[in-house]
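Thread: Newbie trying to understand structure tokens

Hi all, I'm a second-year student working on a class project, and my supervisor (Dr. K.) asked me to get a predicted structure for one chain before our next meeting. I've only ever worked with sequences, so writing a 3D structure as a token string is new to me. If someone could post the tokens and maybe explain what I'm looking at, I'd be very grateful. Here's the chain:
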Amino acid sequence: MDYTSSVNTAQMPFSSDAEQAILGSILKEPTCLSQVALLIKTDYFFFPEHRAIYNAILSLDSQKSGSIDPLTVLETLKSSGLYNDETGRNYLGQLAAAVPSTANVEF
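---
Reply by user tm_fold:
Sure, no problem. This is what the structure looks like when written as tokens:
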């Protein structure tokens, strides 16, 4: 029996809540990005919008000139044509507000 074909078509497990918690933690407390970046790569995010947000965060971090917050991330996403003001601002704000604490972000 050929198991490789079923492995190639199988969907990887994912958790929207976990992805949102990671992004929200970074938006709430950008200093935790150093911990997260050691463990999480962009490709680990299942949802394309979460990959885009994480890429924007990493881009801002690599510039070292600006802060990482919902507004700067939104501006980065807008400049690449991925988000608009209304939906982007609301979603990024929700991500940051939904995280009560960043203490366990690496778990």
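A couple of things are worth pointing out once you decode it. The mean pLDDT is 83. Residues 47-99 form one domain. Feel free to ask follow-ups in this thread.
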